[in-house]
Amino acid sequence: MGKIKINTEFIKLDQFLKWTGIAENGVMAKDIILDGEVLVDGELEKRRGKKLYPGNIVLVFGKEYVVE
């Protein structure tokens, strides 16, 4: 499980994917999300603008990340 520290109150899901290096750009992040590859706290998430807060757990391509 990877821990990802953010310096703001929240981070949007598409920005999170870019920040972690999972997606190279916004288009790639959008495609990953719309393809159903992302779970947030165990639930499928298809909104690019979903706000992630410290404590959220994101599962992408079988790898888990905790927002800190």
Indicate the topology.
Elements lengths: L1 E3 L6 E2 H7 L6 H9 L3 E3 L2 E2 L6 E2 L4 E4 L2 E5 L1
Parallel strand pairs: 1-7
Antiparallel strand pairs: 2-5, 3-4, 3-6, 6-7
Distinctive features:
Structural Genomics Hypothetical 15.5 Kd Protein In mrcA-pckA Intergenic Region, Chain A; 24% helix; 2 helices; alpha+beta; single chain; globular; 5-stranded mixed sheet
Structure description:
The chain is of the alpha+beta class and 68 residues long. It has one domain: Roll (Structural Genomics Hypothetical 15.5 Kd Protein In mrcA-pckA Intergenic Region, Chain A). It is built from two helices and seven strands, in the order ββααβββββ. It has helices at 13-19, 26-34, and strands spanning 2-4, 11-12, 38-40, 43-44, 51-52, 57-60, 63-67. The strands form two sheets. Strands 1-7-6-3-4 form a five-stranded mixed β-sheet, with no helix packed on it. Strands 2-5 form a two-stranded antiparallel ribbon. A hairpin with a 2-residue loop joins strand 3 and strand 4. Helix 1 crosses helix 2 (26-34).
Major sheet attributes:
5 strands, mixed
Portion in strands: 25-35%
Strand order of the largest sheet: 1-7-6-3-4
Rounded to the nearest angstrom, the distance between the terminal CA atoms is: 12 Å
Task: Report the total helices.
Answer: 2
- Structural class comes to alpha+beta
CATH superfamily: RNA-binding S4 domain
Overall number of domains: 1
H/E topology pattern: EEHHEEEEE
Low-confidence stretches: none
Cα gyration radius (Å): 10 Å
Helix content: 10-25%
Q: What gross morphology would you assign? A: globular
**CATH level-3 fold name:** Structural Genomics Hypothetical 15.5 Kd Protein In mrcA-pckA Intergenic Region, Chain A
Estimate the mean pLDDT confidence. 97
Q: Can you name the CATH architecture? A: Roll
CATH class: Alpha Beta
The number of E-state strands comes to 7
